Amino acid sequence: MKFFKTLLLAALTALSLSALAQEATIRKNLAERLPNLPSIDEVSKTPMPGVFEVRINQSDIFYTDAEGNYLIQGAMIDTRARANLTEQRLEKLTALAFKDLPMKDAFTLVRGNGKRKMAVFEDPNCGYCKRLHREFAKIDNVTVHVFLIPVLGDDSVDKARRIWCSKDKAKTYSDWMVNSLPPASASCDTAAIERNSRLASKHGIKGTPTLIFVNDTRVPGYITADRIEDMLN
């Protein structure tokens, strides 16, 4: 029995060393041949024999062979399971649980008793975000945690900073989003906005609005009050 355990351990060690060697080869060859390619975060096997996943920029996925001779961008489909493996992998990589949201970097809009919870990533110049706030006005007993991510240019950055630094963030933001009253000039520590932008990038949030509910469901884009109610319930 001891002999077979020794053989098994040796085989597993050899496989591990082989995998490390393959990863080193892929990293070396891609770095040399594609000097503009960002730093590789991870190299891992895929269900397709001889094909490896190359992950960069936290959630950008490519595929390559064991020698790094070819680089492919696109979706890998499991035809038997009829599943988009690339999409499933991206969902796993960019998952963001509601309980893990850094609420200190958000401010809240509260209606009624605020018992129901949700979060939203928004740009103050986003037209669909403004439409969304008109839908929020139709919903009662909800707390909306607002994470500002200015993605639409310098004016969005300026407005986000003014809103974040205002004495009453919720009122200032609502006045702007609903009534088009520009936020007054203000200054303070705005590192939270930068953290929000990094958080959004890490979890694949590229557009606004993006809504996240307590069951961790993520909804990108504008939706109506009726659908928000369904998600809250």
Describe the structure.
With 233 residues, the protein is α+β, with helices and mostly antiparallel strands. It has two domains: 2-93, Nuclear Transport Factor 2, Chain: A (Roll), CATH 3.10.450.70; 98-232, Glutaredoxin (3-Layer(aba) Sandwich). 40% of the residues lie in helices and 21% in strands. The protein contains seven helices and eleven strands. It has helices at residues 2-33, 85-93, 127-136, 154-165, 169-179, 191-202, 225-232, and strands at residues 40-45, 52-56, 60-64, 71-72, 77-78, 83-84, 107-111, 116-122, 142-148, 210-213, 218-220. The chain is elongated, with a radius of gyration of 23 Å.
What is the strand content? 15-25%
Tally of strands? 11
Contiguous runs where pLDDT drops below 50 for at least 5 residues: none
Please give the alpha-carbon distance between the first and last residues.
58 Å
Domain unit count: 2
Most strands sheet: 5 strands, mixed
Strand arrangement in the largest pleated sheet:
7-9-8-10-11
Helix content estimate:
40-55%
Which terms would index this structure?
single chain; 233 residues; Glutaredoxin; 2 domains; four-stranded antiparallel sheet; 7 helices; 11 strands; 40% helix
Summarize the topology:
Blueprint (H helix, E strand, L loop, with lengths): L1 H32 L6 E6 L6 E5 L3 E5 L6 E2 L4 E2 L4 E2 H9 L13 E5 L4 E7 L4 H10 L5 E7 L5 H12 L3 H11 L11 H12 L7 E4 L4 E3 L4 H8 L1
Parallel strand pairs: 8-9
Antiparallel strand pairs: 1-2, 2-3, 3-4, 5-6, 7-9, 8-10, 10-11
